[in-house]
Amino acid sequence: MASDNQAPGGRAAQTARDVDFPLALRGYDRDAVDRYVEEVNQAIAELEISSSPQSAVRHALEQVSEETSGLLQRAHETADEITVRSRAQADDRLQRAQSEAEEVRDVAAREAEEIRAKVKLEVEQLRADAQARVDALQRNADTIARERRRLLDEVEAMAGRLAEFVREEAARIASEQTEPQQTEPQPDGD
Hints:
This protein is mainly α. It has helices spanning 10-17, 30-51, 53-178.
């Protein structure tokens, strides 16, 4: 393989390509010179391609390499952009999911608190009802106990009167048996 300097017109072509003009205030039209330099470079490249098949292949490879490099660079940039967008979308979705989960937790907490308050009221009502029932049963038991006491007092009083009656009757019967019996006067037979 021949080096660039050994290719026909290699050193001269390189020198012609690497033109650099010093800037001056009133020197030249920069755009016109830049166009000229580009045209000369294009002409040199065409001459190099036509002068040697190796140069033509090398030139084609350089162009393909530059195009491939550009494509790869754009592909990397596109992949980076897609990755950044995907991460941003994933972050947005994660934030929305966290926000929705927080809302669900808040709603569940409110509902649980409402249920606890409702159950508490129901329990308090049941306790109040049970206490009222216990109080009513206690009043009934007290009433029954008073009625029982009254009945026992009446039975005791009745038993006392009955005992008094029995004593009186026993005394009366005893007194009747102990009194001399009056005998009927017997007629005198006289």
